[in-house]
Structures are given as structure tokens and as C-alpha cells.
Amino acid sequence: GAVVSQHPSRVICKSGTSVKIECRSLDFQATTMFWYRQFPKQSLMLMATSNEGSKATYEQGVEKDKFLINHASLTLSTLTVTSAHPEDSSFYICSARDWSVGGNEQFFGPGTRLTVL
Amino acid sequence: EDKVVQSPLSLVVHEGDTVTLNCSYEVTNFRSLLWYKQEKKAPTFLFMLTSSGIEKKSGRLSSILDKKELFSILNITATQTGDSAVYLCAVDGAGSYQLTFGKGTKLSVIP
Predict the structure, then answer these.
(1) Which residues in chain A (50-69) have CB-CB distances under 8 A to chain B?
(2) What count of other Cβ atoms lies within 10 Å of the Cβ of residue B56?
(3) pLDDT of residue B51
């Protein structure tokens, strides 16, 4: 199957700093990528849909000014958590859809665990 | 609003047992239902189901969809400790191929 990478895998930062997470599709082009957040023992919650070359679509309750998404190329989307606070500590996962395969098989990155002190 | 309900939320079985995990859904403009296995990191894809009554199989795992009754089951036969994980069900409904996830079933297989 297609491979999606995320970097970094783990980040610890101080409150008030900004953190950038990269999501790359390694062997296919992804016009659409998705960003999820998962709190401990909870399911994945979709935060936003990232579209190459256009603005991201955010889910209700997700602050677009706090979670900046950029999808500048067909293989890279970035999520920047601005002015991070301890309540932003979570597991952030991206996924990408390989349109050439057909259907809606989404391939997930390995996730980034963010801890804000 | 799309909704996915999985049951049971957790399950403990002995190695060798067979388990059935359930997923029911309400979704606008259903396109597909997907099963994922999540261990410590991100989910890994298991199955995608689009048509009723056609069983998908991979080794000891199999899954089937009933679009009339709006549910799917995931079966695991001869369970092994390596099957211990959270199994997530997701549906793809209206919109730009977004997935709505259920809360997952935590399966623990003990020796």
C-alpha cells in the first residue's frame, strides 16, 4: 500500500511556542490530506481537510487561526500548532488518499505525539 | 450528522477464541465502510467495504457489510496475542471523502 510519513514523531515544547508537523505522501500524489487529533483512549477526530493549492476546510470547533494548515504541493501538507498550550497535547495523525487506487482507502501517517509543558 | 457506533467497547478473550466486532452507522450518501487496526501508533488499514453481502477476507480476519441494516462485522478467528489492539470502524459519507470514526473496540487477547 501507499506510504505516508510524518515528522516529527514526537515533540515536546513549552507553552506559547509554535510547532510544525509535516505529512508527506512518499510514493503517490495526494491532492487531499486529512488531519486528525486523538486524545488518550478516544477515537480519531477529524480536524481539517487539506486541499492542495487551496485553503483547508476546518471542522466545527477547530480554530483555523490556531491550527494552520498548508498544502503547498501534491506530496506535502503541514500543520502548525500556534501558541501551543498544554490542552493541545495530543496525538496528531495525518492521512492521505491515493486517488489512483480508487475508493476511499486512506493511508495514515505514523502520527506525531505533541506534549506541551 | 454522520454517526458510527461500535460494540463492544472492550473485549477480553483467550488465545484461540473467535471474536466478532460490530459497527453500526448512520450516514448521508454512504460510499464505503472501512476497518482499521490501531496498536500504539496510527491506524493500519484492514478492509474497505462498499457492497452488501460480499465478505472480504485476509488470513484470520474477515468482514462483511449489510447496507440494508446499516452495520458491519469484523470477525477474527483463532485469535493470537498479536491481535490485541483497538479496532476502528469508519464510514465515508457525504462531503470530500472525510471519514467518521467510531470509538473503537479494544480487544485484549490473553495467552
Answers:
(1) 51, 57
(2) 18
(3) 87
CA atoms within 13 A on the CB side of B41: 13
Q: What is the pLDDT of residues B38-82, one digit of tens each?
A: 887 778 889 989 888 889 999 999 999 999 999 999 999 999 999
Written in H, E and C, the secondary structure of A42-106 is CCCEEEEEEECCCCCEECCCCCCCCEEEEEEECCEEEEEECCCCHHHCEEEEEEEECCCCCCCCE
Nearest chain A Cα distance for residue B18, angstroms? 24
Q: Pull the grid cell for residue A107.
A: 493511508
Comparing alpha-carbon positions, the chain A residue that sits nearest to B45 is A107
Chain A hits for B96, Cβ within 8 Å: 32, 49, 51, 57
Rounded to the nearest 5 percent, the helix, strand and coil shares of chain B are 5, 55, 40
Across the interface, whether the CB atoms of A49 and B96 are under 8 A apart is answered yes
Residue A103 predicted with pLDDT over 60: no
Q: DSSP secondary-structure letter at A26?
A: S
The sign one gets for the Cα dihedral A66, A106, A13, B39 is: positive
